[in-house]
Amino acid sequence: MVCQARCARLVRIRPALTARARCARLPPMSHRPAGARTRCRAIVTRHASDLGRWELARTRPAESLRPFVREYIGWSEQFGSPLRRRALPDETAALIINFGAPYRLSAAGRLDAAFERTSFITGAYDTFQVVESCGETHGVQVDFTLLGLRLFVGHPLDDLTNQALAPEDVFGGFAQELAGRLYDAASWDARFDLLDRALLARLAAAHAVPPAVCHAWNRILRLRGRAGIGALARETGWSDRHFTAQFRHQFGITPKVFARVLRFAALVRDLRQGSGISLADAALRHGYFDQSHLNRDARRFAGTTPGALARGLTPDDGGFGV
């Protein structure tokens, strides 16, 4: 499973074999008609090591979906022993459709409150999540923006905060039908094309989000968390308290915490890219002028210190280990 940025791949794997390919296949895609031509869309990365092996396919959705869906990700993985991954929050919410062994999930690392899900949909997170897997899994992930999830779910997201629910409990029969069609698809590209069609059809029937809240969400996103919440409230014509309550009702997170999540996620992306930027320079770039603020966000959103986070991140969304 991948859960990019909210559920990143969090085990550090030193690959013994790495390859990039297009138009890859994964089980159970054994019935594609002979001679069928497939448009190459997915970029696929494969890794193998003494821990096991995994395959990752990713692509962007149809252009008209991009304000609402960041990315499609397909994965196939097989590990011989249980692995724990730490899922870091960002501006997305993930739909995980898994055709393999179930995952064991716990918010903020509270293992005493862990529960199992094979497939799940997350809402907004204001903390990290620990995901444990064992055995073989393969499936598809849809990374929604919070605005996109709000539209596709069809109701406010305040009951999804820090939750990982069964997809059918949120999307109803649509989720079960979609999972069956994805399972039968003949390639990664076929799966991603199917997602485009299904989500475009659902988008056409979506109810609009209140314009003032939608405007504020876009402003915070555009400024990568550097927006003044008081100024945004004044733009809506609401009091700070009413604006915060309405934003949280629609998206499941307060505007202030959402801004902090965006800023921290941008820092993590900079560190993960392996460009040689130091933790101190990355912190300054993203507005962390006070070490105590960086420490606070690293503890809340990653459950660790900034230094441990910088040392533990790996490229290719390699994540951060528990």
Your description of this structure?
With 322 residues, this protein is of the alpha+beta class. It folds into 2 domains: 17-204, Jelly Rolls, CATH 2.60.120.10; 211-321, Orthogonal Bundle (Arc Repressor Mutant, subunit A), CATH 1.10.10.60. The protein has 11 helices and 11 strands. The protein has helices at 146-153, 167-171, 173-184, 188-204, 211-222, 229-236, 240-251, 255-272, 279-285, 291-302, 306-312, and strands spanning 17-22, 43-49, 52-59, 69-87, 92-98, 103-107, 115-117, 120-122, 129-145, 164-165, 320-321. Strands 1, 2, 3, 4, 5, 6, 7, 8, 9, 10 and 11 form an 11-stranded antiparallel β-sheet that branches. A hairpin with a 7-residue loop joins strand 6 (103-107) and strand 7.
CATH architecture of the largest domain: Sandwich
Give the CA-CA distance, first to last residue. 16 Å
Number of helices: 11
Order of helices and strands: EEEEEEEEEHEHHHHHHHHHHE
The total of beta strands comes to 11
Tell me the helix content: 25-40%
What overall form do the CA principal axes indicate? globular
Query: Any low-confidence stretches, pLDDT <50, length ≥5?
Result: 2-38
Oligomer: single chain
CATH level 1 class label of the largest domain: Mainly Beta
Helix/strand-derived category reads alpha+beta
Q: In percent, how much strand structure appears in the residues?
A: 15-25%
What do the pLDDT scores average to?
Answer: 85
Sum this structure up briefly.
The protein is α+β, with helices and mostly antiparallel strands.
Brief descriptors of the model:
Arc Repressor Mutant, subunit A; globular; 37% helix; alpha+beta; single chain; Jelly Rolls; 11 helices; 322 residues; eleven-stranded antiparallel beta sheet; 2 domains
